[in-house]
Amino acid sequence: MHELMRSLGRRIEASQQSPDPLSLLGDDAMREAADLWAAQWREDAGVKNLPIAHTIAWLHWSRFKALPVGEDEADLDLALMVFAWVVEVAPQFVNGEVRDALTPGGRDARLALKTLHVVEYRDEPDLLDRAIDLGRRSLAPVGLPPANVARRSTNLGNALMMRYERRADPADLTAGVEAHRNAADAAHPADEVWPLAQSNLGNALLLQAQFTGDREQLDEAVEATRAAWATTPHHHPDLVWRCLNLGNSLRTRFERTAALADLDEMVRVLREAVALAPDGHVDRPMFFSGLTAALGLRFAHHGELEDLDAAVDAARAAVDACPLGRADRHRYLTSLSVMLERRYRRQRQAEDIDEAVAVAEAAVAQGSHHVSGSAARMSNLGGALSVRAGATGTIEDADAAVVACREAVRLGSARQGHLNLSDALHQRFELAGDLSDLTEAAATIRAALADADTGDPGTASLWLGLGLVLFSRFQRTGEEGDVGAALHALRTAASGRSPGHAMAMRAGAAWGLVAATVGAWSSAAEGYGVAVGKLTEAAWPGLRRDSQEQALRDWSGLSADATAAMIAAGSLGAAVETAEQGRGVLWAQLLQTRTTLGDLRAAAPALAARLDGQRRALAAAYTVD
Description:
The protein is mainly α. Among the domains are: 102 residues, no CATH class; 61 residues; 28 residues. The protein has 31 helices and no strands. Helix 5 crosses helix 6 and helix 8 packs parallel to helix 10. The longest helix is centred in the first third of the chain and has 22 residues. The chain is elongated. The C terminus is likely disordered.
């Protein structure tokens, strides 16, 4: 009898590590179990033997886990029947997983969880429905311990959210949020399940907020994901995912509200995610990619060169962390190309745009067998080629850019693909002078605008592109309809909701220029006024000094143009205010960088006294009310 029990024990233990556990728990194991029961009956006259009962129970429990869904319930019932006696006489031999299954509703909970694991990777609607029904039945008993409610509600919420993602039924989304909220309410902050419940609730609320547009749901999503991140132990393997979840919710809220605190917190937690992932971690490229996107977004808002350099470094690290031949490597190459192109646009270093093109070509080549993302890869390549064509005047790059962007649109690229195609056609017109390129460029953007949602802040870039194309065509043909449409497009771009100052400044300055060209001075003054109004944001005090100076150089003539337009429009008071506003930005930056004169006073007291007098005079001349 003892040898039979040892043999069966070895089978059960080996099955835990085997890729085919049923090969160890099949007919031979069942025969040994039957012989063991018979031997106990003969030797102990039917008295229950704890070690034997424990072994038999684990055999059926292991078989339940290994058998396919639908063929496993008999083994589960036998295991629970024997474990029920074992837990009465020796509870220390029964783990928490089995104890939960022995509570009211526990059998349904185990079946629901196993079914959910199966349908996670298989699209079987009937099984998913079964998992949800079992999950609801597991929560039906009255008086369940809060810990059991938390775990079972979590599993039910996961099943409902999975069904929502597959069938897009809003009722499942609402029920999923409710289940995850019940889990969070039932869990105690000291319980291990509490951070998981908060994380699941936050993710579900974020999805619901994106569906409903409800700001309160979005705020609650941020708070829940932040609570999950804050309470997950530093050594816990899920902490890196909690960082990503919090970063995702913060990014969604920032895109809705433009709250700078969310932007900075997002960068911090995504840097933490990168630091937590060791070298060789399979998802390390994805963590670097998330940080790249966060830094790129902060650069777009603040214009801080340090963020742009860091974004390029993070994108490059994502590529380096992704092995050659891995299926998703093309995504990280595309991200690196985008950041290099963005840095070229700011710093005009030829090596950046050359590398951007080379990396974009590599992304297209490596992703040639993957339909997903193919339009974005082609669009990115076309955009990089077009920028280089503008820098070098190379018509071959311009032609290649148009070909790539047309292919991107054919493959289904939406807004960015249409915008890149329009830019490529516009650039080729500048080099070759073919008016049909401008006609196609305008039609391309209008098609994208027709498909865009009303009020979408991302359409500002389309309106800006359309305005510039139409103005170029007006300059060639003199068609008055084009200039009127260009002014309308630029006004729309400048006044639309945008997450940063850059779009309003570009569109406002272009609006002012177009209006001034045709002598519409009141309109020109209005457009330039929009741009000047954003100048303090372009060179805000939080930037490093070199970034402030670069921003001011980029817009060095803006105040003068605006002042001239206002004078021509007869708005002399506004002209004076605008001139002072532009001058004030410059002086404000200088005054904020003043340092004490202690070192100079010690070396050259007379010079220090003269400089101090000049500084005081300047400070008195420029006073901010």
